[in-house]
Amino acid sequence: MDTERKQIYVWSRKIRFFHWLNVIAITLLVAIGVIILNSKTFGISTDGKILLKTLHVFVGYVFALNLFIRILFGFIGTTYEKWSKTLPFNKKFARELREFIQNKQPTYKGHNPLGKLMVLALMTLMLVQTVSGLVIAGTDIYYPPLGRYFAESVAIDKNKLEDVKPYSKVNIDESAYKAMREVRKPFITAHIYAFYGLIFLIPLHIFGVIIAERRERSALVSSMINGYKYLPVDTKD
């Protein structure tokens, strides 16, 4: 006989909006990024590469703003928007994880313990991508928020910053340009490794959702569309 279940509103519109906008932005960023990394193989011209990087940056702005808003709501939001409900930092987490492994607590209103660990990992990598991406945008195609600063740092005549353009040597101090490229190296490394990390974790996240859906039978997938889970009446928070 099936356990009696009730419909419970878990994921707010803000959380669902963040999730699906994030999915779209990351998909576009990965697709454009892969093309940029393989631009020589695809025979893409310099102008084409600049266009792709510009598109990558604009999608990156959407991604970064969406992430910033989500981080903010983690502090000022309600219920399952809050970090205390989402990240594995509360005092009860070790017990939650142990009970989850022992299958003593089969269903959860919010994220299960492994889900909380996944959220932490994904949010950390996305934050690294955001910070490193904004620095790279400034050093590569001189886009905000740091583009003007880096353009001034490499310009011979700082009154003609409009002449400082991607892949152009006009009004560029070679030694300053080399120094700027050295500054950006660790950010490039962080960006690439965070990219690989996301490529690894995203399929793992999807797999985990499928397993959790089969284990909990709580309409986990559809809950990220309509906000509602179907949980046993005695489910604990």
Automatic annotation (TrEMBL):
Q: Which residues form the Cytochrome b561 bacterial/Ni-hydrogenase domain?
A: 10-227
Q: How does it sit in the membrane?
A: Multi-pass membrane protein
This protein's major location comes to membrane
Q: Which GO terms describe its biological process?
A: respiratory electron transport chain
Sorted alphabetically, the keyword list is: Cell membrane, Electron transport, Heme, Iron, Membrane, Metal-binding, Transmembrane, Transmembrane helix, Transport
Quick check: keyword Membrane in the entry?
A: yes
Q: Name one GO molecular function term.
A: iron ion binding
The residues forming the signal peptide are none
Q: Which InterPro entries match?
A: Cyt_b561_bac/Ni-Hgenase, Di-haem_cyt_TM, Hydrogenase_cytochrome, Ni-dep_Hydgase_cyt-B
User: Where is the chain membrane-spanning?
Assistant: 20-38, 58-80, 117-137, 190-212
Question: What are the record's GO terms for cellular component?
Answer: plasma membrane
**Family from the record:** Belongs to the HupC/HyaC/HydC family.
Q: What is the protein's name according to its record?
A: Cytochrome b/b6 domain-containing protein
The major lineage groups are: Bacteria, Pseudomonadati, Pseudomonadota, Gammaproteobacteria, Alteromonadales
